[in-house]
Amino acid sequence: MNINKISIQSFSKLKRNVKIAAIFLTSSLPTKINNDQFVKMPKQIVHEVSLSSLTKGLDVVEEVNCRGGVTKRFSDSSLNVLKNRLLSSNFNVTYTYPIDTSVKPYIPSTGQFGSLRPQNRPHLGVDIYPRLYGRKPKQPVAVLSATDGIVVSVKKSPQKDPQNLIANNIKIMSPDGKIYSYDHLGRPEDYVGAKYTELKPLGTVVNAGDTLGTVGRTGETAVWHLHFGVSDLDAKQEQLKNPTWKKLFKDYSVYATPSGQVDPLDVNKAGDIADILNVYKLDDGPKVDYLDKL
Questions:
Q1: Distances (CA, A) of 157 to 17, 125, 163
Q2: How far apart, in whole angstroms, are the C-alpha atoms of residue 258 and residue 135?
């Protein structure tokens, strides 16, 4: 009995190591670049008609931020309905890295989940840099959907935002039931004359590897990067009852709104996408876990 248990664990570990090595090898290979510098990624096409039918009857909420940003999203109750529909749909989920890997992106220790931010506020995602120190890429860098799924929220920054307060953001719910968030997406004026991908409308079906936008610096940041988040609605329910999260929200308001955020680098919480992201983690680094400290 013990021998079987050990052999199963060893096989599982070997299988996972082979998977990570394959991801790393694939990401290091030359990639085909279009004239607009966007990458054509091999992808598995999901059944768009079937997936799009899952949004039938869902409630849509439109919010205008006090700073001028406009968000269209499915209501909280509708997200739970959609999650149950997706989990019962039995679609296979494809995962890929959310940035064009030909630019050798990396996740610094300072951009990991729980790392320091101004006024000691929590960082509840991971930052992916396409260029050292967050310098502006010389060409547009495509932000790609990390999974198959359905667009469940779209936030657009206002045309005039001189203080850069509102970030372009898109959220996608995958058939695995999790919500993947892409923040600080670029504006058309970032690269004059280059192709710009508009944010996809609410309810759009996307495939892993579809272009969602470009790496930008919209919304209270001075560096060019993608803030990538993973949320689980079950974790959200726990956060809403957790005294630590209540204090976190009280202290940092919008920067710590409970939405089920989990560490995208934690395979036990974020799932398969963590294996892909960890290939590009720069180092473990000095990290503060606010959820343990508060």
A1: 41, 20, 11
A2: 31
Element (H, E) at 13: helix 2-28
Highest mean pLDDT among 107-121, 147-161, 223-237: 223-237
Q: How far apart are the first and last CA of the chain?
A: 43
SS3 66: coil
Average pLDDT value for the chain: 82
Cα–Cα distance for residue pair 103/97, rounded to 1 Å: 12
For residue 53, how many C-alpha atoms fall within 13 Å in the half-sphere facing its CB?
6
Per the CB < 8 A criterion, the answer to whether 200 and 188 are in contact is: no
Polymer length in residues for the chain: 294
Query: Residue 239, by phi and psi: left (phi above 0), alpha (psi -120 to 50) or beta?
Result: alpha
Domain ranges of the chain: 1-30, 31-293
Q: Is CATH 2.70.70.10 what the domain over 31-293 is classified as, yes or no?
A: yes
231, 262 contact by CB (below 8 A): yes
User: CA–CA separation, 209 vs 270, rounded Å?
Assistant: 19
Handedness of CA 274, 154, 121, 218 (dihedral sign): positive
